[in-house]
Amino acid sequence: MSGKRAFFYVQHLLGIGHIARASRIANAMATDGFDVTVVTGGLPVPGFPAGGLKTIALPPVVASNAGFSGLADANGNPATEAFLSSRRDMLLSAFRETKPDAVIIEAFPFGRRQMRFELLPLLDAIASVNPRPKLFSSVRDILQENRKPGRDEETVKLVKDHFDAVLVHGDPDFVRLEATFPLTADIADKVRYTGLVAPPPAADPAERFDIIASAGGGAVGLDLIRAARDAACSLPASYRWLLISGPNLPERDFAALQHEAPANVTLVRFRKDFPSLLKGAKVSISQAGYNTVGDLLRTDCRAILIPFVAGGETEQTVRAERLKAMGLASILPETGLTAEHVASAVSEALARPPRQAAALDLAGAETTAAIIRSMLG
Q1: Mean pLDDT of the region 212-238
Q2: Is 5-198+362-376 a CATH 3.40.50.2000 domain?
Q3: Which of 160, 254, 307, 341 is exposed most, by the fewest CB atoms within 10 A?
Q4: Bridge partner residues of 192 (DSSP)
Q5: 183: helix, coil or strand?
Q6: Can you give the pLDDT at residue 344?
């Protein structure tokens, strides 16, 4: 498989979960002998993609609101038609120069409809090449629900017309694609479950904290971090807290949190050793994003999940409820979250024994590489 070229497109619009998962998969593919080029389209994220991978950074776009209904440039200005056309041309040029054997598109066509301006032309470009590269859709196990009428049918048609396989990054014993995509039966012959894309087992932590509160990318996690900071004031001062705001929290909010933090609370934007820190912690407070949950499942850390629901988002709620049903987490609502809620949940979590290891397939990155390798022949 040495020398096989892979072209991996990933566009993160708000959080950092998509690029983190794609980076783990790209690393596994590189380890498996692929020559991987990762094309990113969002704001830069420290540590992703990992060093050693070829990367192409398109001019970034972000979600212009929490409902993901519009696109803005890196400065928050509405993305113009000329700007988007230039991006599209850069993407198509990168594809032609790479001459890949496999193309992996993260989320689309199950999500990222905002990116059709460049992804539909990319599909046409792939179809016009001889020999045509294999085309894969890389999707998380739980999709956003409440889609508009006709969207699922449109997705099915795109999959049937263009894609060789849909790589579902989940364990079917945890949740199956049909739980959040009703027309799965129409594309069942193309669905491949990879297992959850979790990090490898972490090393022992170089530093230990009792309670870790994290907000993923940080664009929407201010209330969680603030409530955790204030909860620390009402619990014993002997507990060491680490608050990870995420790189996208506005600087004025980060400064305010830091100014008012008690002495037993450490506030940072990002820790690349987050999985290792979880291994040493007693309690984690976080949203229920895919990657954070993957990190948690590698440890016995007690988990308090606060699913992100703004803009009608449903994915994190489905994941959190599944984990709670398995005895792997407790849940707090995002709406109306207070320091009292967090303090009470932490006290209850500390009274429980450490969580048992989850019997779920966590080797999704390596399995993804193996599936693509096998389909290339």
Answers
A1: 91
A2: yes
A3: 160
A4: 167
A5: coil
A6: 98
Query: pLDDT digits over 135-169, tens only?
Result: 999 999 999 886 788 999 999 999 999 999 999 99
Q: Which two tokens stand for residue 118?
A: 């460049």
Q: What is the pLDDT of residues 241-274, one digit of tens each?
A: 999 998 888 999 999 998 888 999 999 999 989 9
One fold for 5-198+362-376 and 211-350: yes
Exposure string for 205-219, b = 16+ CB within 10 A, e = fewer: beeebbbbbbbbbbb
Tell me the domain boundaries of the chain.
Answer: 5-198+362-376, 211-350
Spatial CA neighbour of 126 closest among 168, 86, 90, 161: 161
Name the H helices within 32-115. 81-98
pLDDT at residue 68 in the model: 46
Mean pLDDT for the chain overall:
93
Q: Quote the CA–CA distance of 377 and 373 in Å, as a whole number.
A: 7
Residue that has been written with the tokens 């579902």 in this structure: 168
Give the count of beta carbons closer than 10 Å to the beta carbon of residue 65: 11
Phi-psi region of 119 (alpha: psi -120 to 50; beta: other; left: phi over 0): alpha
Contact 309, 336 (CB under 8 A): no
> Which of 240, 285, 246, 280 shows the shortest CA–CA distance to 262?
240
Alpha-carbon span 239 to 237, nearest angstrom: 5
Query: What type of residue is 99?
Result: K
Choices 3.40.190.10, 3.40.50.2000, 3.40.50.150, 3.40.50.720: CATH for 211-350: 3.40.50.2000
**Structure-block tokens of residue 320:** 């959190």
d(CA 349, CA 355): 10
The answer to whether residues 141 and 175 touch, using CB atoms and an 8 Å cutoff, is yes
Q: From CA 288, how far away is CA 210, in angstroms rounded?
A: 20
Closest CA to 346 of 207, 229, 254: 229
pTM, entire model: 0.90
Among candidate residues 244, 242, 241, the one with its CA nearest the CA of residue 270: 244
